[in-house]
Amino acid sequence: MTVNVTAMLVMCDETNNLHEFTYNVVCNQYPFGLLFDRTTAIVAGLGLAVAGFAGRYILKQMPALAQKMSEAVKNMPPLDAQALANSKYYKGGFEARMTRREAALILGVSPTAPKSKVREQFRKIILANHPDRGGSPYLASKINEAKDLLEK
Fold this sequence. Notes:
Layout: E1 2-12, E2 18-28, H1 34-74, H2 81-85, H3 100-107, H4 115-129, H5 137-151
Antiparallel strand pairs: 1-2
Helix pairs in contact: 3-5, 4-5
């Protein structure tokens, strides 16, 4: 025995347009008897009702959500040159002739750091930027130049 259950859901959106949703649920009889079919139909109907009410709630909340999102976008700090100028990263490119200060900035040590600290930092940075591992040959040469300059 097969039981067909048809549920019709009518929802109204924010512009007062009606939307009709029709769901057909087919319940087959199982060895547990007609009680299981009725329970399945009831559970399916309740599930459809919950889905309908959730959809209606979401449709009603959309204008408020859109307004909150636009306010959040307006309140975001501007991404301009001034915001980027205050970043923690070194501004500008490499100097024509490397100085101790620039070498120390590349390796992330102080200009008066001991050789052991320079070697340790060099190893960490060159492992991450080595050309054999996908790093830039130009950056690897600058890292090597910085190490050589600070080890003198």
